[in-house]
Design a protein that fits this description.
The protein is mostly helical. The protein is built from 11 helices and no strands. It is flat.
Length: 263
């Protein structure tokens, strides 16, 4: 039965073989669709850039309520316009990612066996889910506490000390929040990466368990680099990454058990 399935897969892949020029034309087609999807999403998000930026600035707005200068500033005439352009590109890329990933899948899938397609499809679906989870974690858990911790460093002036008052710039705040969103979104892809490595046999669950202490040290170092300089922000990234590492071990173990069952 397995030989018949394997022969069917070989015949299916053989049917998709084409000259190099046809593959290049197919690649161009997928790139064009991806670029068009990004441009459409960018224009749509740029139209709503003010609302999207207000959503991203919501943690800062809550932290600055009641303060005399509870607003952002722009120190250059085109700064607000370019900030909204960045908002449109950032949100447009996030919105278009499922379409772009789908185009990549449509280009790669014909060259894979049926069992390989079934194996990789869950990872393709899990990637945006984990990225959104990481982004939501930033906006709803880490950012409110991080902003308050950083604002606590401000102090009024007196006869001996010069005062420090927060006047956040529009562009700098956007860079700050988008950097954290991308950093958390990418680090939350750890289960996808480790499970893929386990799927192809590069790592095993036993190796991951034996390297747990080194992984925790590495996660702590990554958290120290990516998060603002306060202990809560650092711990808020360490804890979920350690949990995701344990989930990765369980996923690789399940793959190994399924492989033994098939054997």
């Amino acid at each position: 039965m397995s030989d018949t399935v394997h022969d069917d897969d070989e015949a299916e892949i053989e049917a998709t073989k084409a000259p190099l020029l046809d593959h290049l034309l197919e690649l161009r087609k997928r790139l064009i669709w991806s670029i068009v999807a990004f441009l459409v999403c960018f224009l749509l998000c740029f139209f709503f850039a003010k609302e999207i930026f207000a959503f991203l600035a919501h943690p800062l707005m809550n932290a600055m309520q009641g303060m005399p200068n509870n607003h952002l500033i722009a120190t250059g005439l085109p700064e607000t316009f370019f900030t909204y352009m960045k908002v449109g590109m950032f949100a447009g890329l996030c919105l278009a990612f499922p379409i772009i990933a789908g185009q990549v899948w449509l280009f790669v899938a014909p060259g894979l066996y049926r069992n390989e397609r079934r194996a990789f499809l869950p990872f393709l679906l899990a990637t945006p889910v984990l990225f959104v989870t990481g982004a939501a974690f930033v906006l709803y858990v880490m950012m409110p506490f991080a902003i308050r911790a950083l604002m606590a460093l401000d102090a009024p002036g007196d006869d001996k000390h010069m005062g420090i008052q927060l006047l956040p710039k529009v562009s700098e705040y956007l860079d700050f929040v988008t950097t954290l969103v991308f950093a958390f979104g990418l680090t939350f892809q750890m289960p996808v990466l480790l499970t893929l490595l386990g799927r192809v046999g590069i790592i095993t669950s036993a190796q991951l368990r034996s390297a747990r202490r080194y992984a925790i040290v590495g996660i702590t170092a990554v958290a120290a680099v990516l998060t603002p300089p306060d202990i809560f922000s650092m711990v808020s990234l360490i804890v979920p990454l350690v949990l995701l590492y344990e989930i990765s071990i369980a996923c690789v173990w399940l793959i190994e058990r399924g492989r033994k069952t098939e054997a």
